[in-house]
From TrEMBL:
Organism in which the protein naturally occurs: Stappia indica
Family to which this protein belongs: Belongs to the universal ribosomal protein uL22 family.
NCBIfam families referenced in this protein's UniProt entry, alphabetically: rplV_bact
Gene Ontology BP annotations: translation
Subunit (UniProt): Part of the 50S ribosomal subunit.
Coiled coil: none
Gene assigned in the entry: rplV
Function in brief: This protein binds specifically to 23S rRNA; its binding is stimulated by other ribosomal proteins, e.g., L4, L17, and L20. It is important during the early stages of 50S assembly. It makes multiple contacts with different domains of the 23S rRNA in the assembled 50S subunit and ribosome. The globular domain of the protein is located near the polypeptide exit tunnel on the outside of the subunit, while an extended beta-hairpin is found that lines the wall of the exit tunnel in the center of the 70S ribosome.
Presence of keyword Transferase: no
Pfam families assigned to the protein according to its UniProt record, in alphabetical order: Ribosomal_L22
CDD domains, alphabetized: Ribosomal_L22
GO cellular component: a single term: cytosolic large ribosomal subunit
Protein name: Large ribosomal subunit protein uL22
Lineage: Bacteria, Pseudomonadati, Pseudomonadota, Alphaproteobacteria, Hyphomicrobiales
UniProt keywords, alphabetically: Ribonucleoprotein, Ribosomal protein, RNA-binding, rRNA-binding
Length: 126
C-alpha cells in the first residue's frame, strides 16, 4: 500500500542527469554551469573540454550522461539537443578547524554541491 506512481516530471522531448556531492562551492560551480545554459550540446561539450576550471570535467561528465539518457531512454535525436537547464544546488558543508595563533582556531568550511542538467530536443528552423 503506497501511493500510486506519479507521471514523468519532464516533457517528452527532455532528459536530465543529476550529479550529487560535487566537491566545489555552488558559487564556483554556477560560473561553469552558466557558460553552457541555452547552448547546443556540441558547443557546450567543446566549451567544457577547453575550460580551465577544475570542476568542468565533472560538469562535462554530467552533460554526457544527460545526452546518453536522451538517446537511450527517450529516443531523442542527439544532433538537435540544447541545454535547457543547468541549475546548481547546495548540498552540505563539512566543517573543519585549524589551529591559529594565540590559542585560537580558524574555521574551514568545505562545501559540496549538486548539479542538474536538463537537455531538450528542439526542431531545426530553416
Amino acid at each position: 500500500m503506497g501511493k500510486p506512481k506519479g507521471g514523468r516530471a519532464l516533457a517528452d522531448n527532455e532528459a536530465k542527469a543529476v550529479a550529487r556531492m560535487l566537491r566545489v562551492s555552488p558559487r564556483k560551480l554556477n560560473l561553469v554551469a552558466a557558460t553552457i545554459r541555452g547552448q547546443k550540446v556540441e558547443k557546450a561539450l567543446a566549451d567544457l573540454t577547453f575550460s580551465r576550471k577544475r570542476i568542468s570535467d565533472d560538469v562535462k561528465k554530467t552533460l554526457m550522461s544527460a545526452i546518453a539518457n536522451a538517446e537511450n531512454n527517450h529516443d531523442l535525436d542527439v544532433d538537435s539537443l540544447v541545454v535547457a537547464e543547468a541549475h546548481v544546488g547546495k548540498a552540505f558543508v563539512i566543517k573543519r578547524f585549524q589551529a591559529r595563533a594565540r590559542g585560537r582556531v580558524g574555521r574551514i568550511e568545505k562545501p559540496f554541491s549538486n548539479l542538474t542538467i536538463v537537455v531538450r530536443e528542439v526542431e531545426e528552423t530553416a
